Amino acid sequence: MFYCELEVECNEKKTPKVIKFYNSTKYCVDVLDQMARKHSTKSAFRRWPAQVFFNILDLAAINSWVIYKEVVGTKIKSRDYIFNLADELRNNHVLCKTSTLSDFTPGTDDGPTASSRKIKKCKINRCRYNTMSICCDSKKSVCGSCTSKMIKLSVCRNCKK
Predict the structure, then answer these.
(1) DSSP 8-class letter at 145
(2) What is the DSSP letter of 39?
(3) Which of 25-34, 49-58, 125-134 has the highest mean pLDDT?
(4) CA-based diameter of the chain, in Å?
(5) Are 99 and 120 contacting, i.e. CB atoms less than 8 angstroms apart?
(6) Which of 27, 34, 35, 119 has the most other CB atoms within 10 Å of its CB?
(7) Which part of the chain is the PiggyBac transposable element-derived protein domain (predicted)?
(8) Which run of H or of E encompasses 60?
């Protein structure tokens, strides 16, 4: 169709006809890629599935921004919209996570404060490991080999029984 012969137009750039056709029909793809690069969520991942996931995330954020502008009719910068979107998603996740953890936490005690969390010896039998974890039930220092982890809550073997 377009690849049979190379036709070059006589302008300053001397671009082939195929490239002019592509540029005339695929303009929005280039704009979308530029916007995705401008506010990217990508990190230095070497694995291609992670790169594809973050690219989809970028494109979804930009598409939702365009739809939001069309539906609401307000002018909002893409950067501000993406940050607001990230905050809303993060807040929903944190609320959901804290409500899930409160179901598993016995009592109303929030546990040790940051100042009281020091490295201590494990208090289970003859264990000599150092730890910062504390059993939720007995409030004793417990190492990783002496615990049963349940959704980031440490419970010692004695309390588990």
Answers:
(1) G
(2) T
(3) 49-58
(4) 87
(5) no
(6) 35
(7) 12-65
(8) helix 48-72
Average pLDDT, the chain: 75
What is the pTM assigned to this prediction? 0.46
Please give the pLDDT value at position 67. 92
CB neighbour burial string for 1-40, b if at least 16 within 10 angstroms, e if fewer: eeeeeeeeeeeeeeeeeeeeeeeeeeeeeeeeeebbeebe
Q: How far is CA 138 from CA 99, 128, 129, 146, 158, in A?
A: 23, 18, 18, 13, 9
Please state the separation of Cα 80 from the chain's center in Å: 18
Q: What is the DSSP letter of 144?
A: G
Contact (CB, 8 A) for 137 and 111 = no
47 — alpha (psi -120 to 50), left (phi > 0) or beta? Answer: beta
Query: Which residue in the block uniquely carries the two structure tokens 């540029």?
Result: 23
